[in-house]
């Protein structure tokens, strides 16, 4: 099965999020994760994080933790995910998708139900907090890149991202803001539309021959 991340990226991210600086970012995101997973109570949710589940989330759902190139939880797997298509109303990918990775994001879009939302939580390359993950071989990108990735996966991204986490101190920051700003991380949401994002050309109507006049 193909790896979820390029070589070296998963272990680097997992190790960093186990440090005090990484745990402060994850703790800052707890409220947003709970909000995102509870947005579609009629369907189960899927949450993939860089470590074990650190807080309780209501509703029915599946939590998987990334360890190396595999996902661990009630099931142990890699991509393609052994999950039915369009089964989850809300999905959170919390620091588990690399900039050059496509497999996990595409699989998440596949199992997302029409009308559902997928949330990406990623690190902010413009924050002073980036010095905290320096040397861990972690890559990050600006919102424009991730919006393009969401569109390529067939999702419609929101126009505004939400900045979360501290800016420098290794302490959780429970609030969020519009745009990444100088926050350590930010969240982007994409929706799976009921209709395709690309307009479908209507088939040309065939001409119907005129009826013969009655004699």
Please give the structural blueprint.
Elements (H helix, E strand, L loop, with lengths): L8 H9 L2 H9 L1 H8 L7 E5 L11 E7 L2 E3 L15 E7 L8 H9 E12 L19 H10 L3 E2 L4 E3 L11 E3 L6 E7 L24
Parallel strand pairs: 1-2, 1-4, 4-5
Antiparallel strand pairs: 2-3, 5-9, 6-9, 7-8, 7-9
Q: Could you walk me through the main structural features you see in this protein, from its secondary elements to its overall organization?
A:
- The protein is globular.
- The chain starts with 8 loop residues before the first helix and ends in a 24-residue tail after the last strand.
- It is of the alpha/beta class.
- It is 21% helix and 23% strand.
The gist of it:
Helix content is 21%, strand content 23%. The chain is of the alpha/beta class. The chain is globular and about 40 Å long.
State the helix count: 5
Q: Residue share in helices? A: 10-25%
Report strand %.
15-25%
Task: List unreliable stretches of 5+ residues.
Answer: 1-10, 196-206
Overall shape: globular
Mean pLDDT across residues: 85
Q: Given the helix and strand composition, which structural class is it?
A: alpha/beta
The largest β sheet comes out as: 9 strands, mixed
Termini gap: 73 Å
Q: What's the alpha carbon Rg, rounded to whole Å?
A: 21 Å
Order of helices and strands: HHHEEEEHEHEEEE
Q: How many E-type strands?
A: 9
């Amino acid at each position: 099965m193909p790896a979820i991340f390029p070589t070296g990226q998963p272990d680097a991210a997992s190790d960093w999020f186990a440090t005090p600086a990484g745990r402060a970012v994850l703790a800052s995101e707890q409220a947003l994760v709970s909000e995102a997973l509870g947005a579609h109570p009629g369907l189960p949710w899927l949450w993939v994080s860089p470590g074990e589940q650190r807080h309780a989330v209501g509703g029915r759902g599946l939590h998987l933790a990334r360890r190396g190139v595999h996902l661990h939880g009630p099931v142990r797997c890699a991509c393609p995910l052994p999950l039915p298509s369009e089964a989850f109303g809300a999905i959170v990918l919390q620091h588990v998708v690399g900039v050059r990775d496509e497999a996990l994001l595409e699989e998440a879009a596949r199992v997302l139900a029409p009308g559902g939302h997928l949330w990406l939580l990623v690190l902010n390359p413009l924050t002073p907090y980036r010095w905290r993950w320096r040397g861990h071989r972690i890559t990050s990108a600006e919102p424009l890149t991730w919006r393009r990735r969401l569109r390529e996966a067939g999702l419609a991204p929101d126009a505004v991202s939400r900045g979360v986490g501290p800016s420098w101190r290794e302490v959780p920051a429970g609030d969020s803001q519009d745009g990444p700003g100088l926050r350590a991380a930010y969240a982007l949401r994409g929706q799976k539309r009921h209709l395709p994002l690309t307009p479908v050309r209507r088939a040309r109507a065939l001409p119907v021959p005129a009826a013969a006049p009655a004699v």
